Amino acid sequence: MIDKFTLKPLDQTCSQVSRRPHSALEETVASAWPGTHRGMKLLVIEDDERMAEFVVRGLKERGHIVDHAKNGKDGLFLAASEQYDAMVIDRMLPDLDGLKILKMLRAGGNHVPAIFLTTMAGIDDRVEGLEAGADDYLVKPFAFEELFARLGALMRRPPVSDVRTTLRVGEIELDLITRIVTRSGKRIELQPQELKLLEYFMRSEGRVVTRTMLLENVWDFHFDPQTSVVETHISRLRAKIDKGFEGDHLKTIRGAGYCLRAE
């Protein structure tokens, strides 16, 4: 078991504002990961700012949701408390190195595929990394396309129980393959942007999502357009997923934002 009590908490519940937003899922099929499910949720643990930006941006551009931890303790906390489809871990990290992170995760029953990034190119170093539980090992510097191909190869392996193809929050279900949304077995027709918004909420289940987070991660606006685009889409989404059903799942948290949770 991993003792999460000693780790720095990164998320807050619906009663508090979340400080760590997720990135939005890109909508176009062209950006989907060939041969794998769309919208993979990935964790990058990397302390080098430029390297992290390089990797995270590349993965986001191909339509995947990416969380980034800047040090080992935060990375371990995220890996142990969230559900990911794959992890990219720098071997040399401040406060807790990649080897220790992966050993602790594997000992705790976490078998999410992981690739080590490292400057340590020796055979013994590679063997040590693989024996710690890594599925692959990539030496820096590297081309992003190589990392992308290696992650793709991992994702094409037979699925394991950790990999999700469906999101569920209460009675609402989103099939990540067919992109079909249902509530209590009844199909709900959503427009592309409404679907994107719902998926973001579902992946942030139980956490407060602010207007700024939605603008940045669903609309890719890094400024406030001074429009009611967020409020309008939330109103439309709420009318489709809550109206006519027993209990509201999409909540407005006064003075903070919005939160999707089951009753």
Give short descriptive properties of this protein.
alpha/beta, Rossmann fold, Arc Repressor Mutant, subunit A, 2 domains, five-stranded parallel β-sheet, four-stranded antiparallel β-sheet
User: What's the rounded overall pLDDT mean?
Assistant: 79
CATH topology assignment of the largest domain? Rossmann fold
Number of helix segments?
Answer: 8
How many β-strands, per DSSP? Answer: 11
What is the N-to-C succession of helices and strands? EHEHEHEHEHEEEEHHHEE
Coarse morphology: elongated
CATH superfamily of the largest domain: Response regulator
- Share of β-strand residues: 15-25%
Show unreliable segments.
Answer: 1-37
Record the strand order, biggest sheet.
2-1-3-4-5
Derived from helix and strand composition plus strand pairing, the structural class reads alpha/beta
Total domain count: 2
- Fraction of residues in H or I helices: 25-40%
| Known CATH architecture of the largest domain | 3-Layer(aba) Sandwich
| Rg calc | 19 Å
CATH class of the largest domain: Alpha Beta
Distance between the termini: 30 Å
The profile of the biggest β sheet is:
5 strands, parallel
Descriptive overview:
The chain is of the alpha/beta class and 263 residues long. It folds into two domains: 32-155, Rossmann fold (3-Layer(aba) Sandwich); 166-260, Winged helix-like DNA-binding domain superfamily/Winged helix DNA-binding domain (Arc Repressor Mutant, subunit A, Orthogonal Bundle). The chain is 33% helix and 17% strand. It has helices at 49-61, 72-81, 98-107, 123-131, 144-155, 192-203, 211-217, 229-241; strands at 41-45, 65-69, 86-90, 114-118, 136-139, 166-169, 172-175, 181-183, 186-188, 250-253, 257-260. The longest helix is centred in the N-terminal third of the chain and has 13 residues, at 49-61. Residues 1-37 have low confidence and may be disordered.
